[in-house]
């Protein structure tokens, strides 16, 4: 009889391999994911660098709209300040804006979201599909979340920035938790004013703030 209590050993490199593959798939947005995956891993087996786009590009079908910060801002407004959104409701909002279903599914997979979605986490990953770097991703997120477009530079509460940066860095997996902590401590102590808000220029034009 087959043994049922034999422990299954997971190769230590598997989680990182799958994470890099998923990130590459989100950036490339292949029309045929199965074929692209075969080419991706085939290139790795041959010791070659897989073909990966630096950022998501528009889908060839004219039925889809390209994801933009402006559309994310509309989506954020429709969420209406809620922290949790049900997957079916968010999927319908996404569909109404004619955004690519494949991108929605990719964000869902990377975030490991189920029925109840933490909106800020979903938004952060959606922004990451537009931003090549973490700094650019946070800039987009800040511009989407800011209510100050007509009165000044985009800015958000530092607590929101802290949450987004920590989460994006965790998903990225290439930035140490200690580095994230040092950057957040510096920004909070040396950059943030009494209003508790952080502006885009505070983390994009300050040479001492290195988010990557």
From TrEMBL:
Chief location: other
Location of the protein in the cell: Cell projection, Cilium, Flagellum
Keyword entries, A-Z: Cell projection, Cilium, Flagellum, Phosphoprotein, Ubl conjugation
TM helices/strands, residue ranges: none
Highest rank taxon of the organism: Eukaryota
This protein's record includes keyword Phosphoprotein: yes
InterPro entries reported in the protein's UniProt record: ROP_DD
Function, in words: Important for male fertility. With ROPN1L, involved in fibrous sheath integrity and sperm motility, plays a role in PKA-dependent signaling processes required for spermatozoa capacitation.
Family: Belongs to the ropporin family.
Protein name, entry field: Ropporin-1A
Species whose genome carries this gene: Pipistrellus nathusii (Nathusius' pipistrelle)
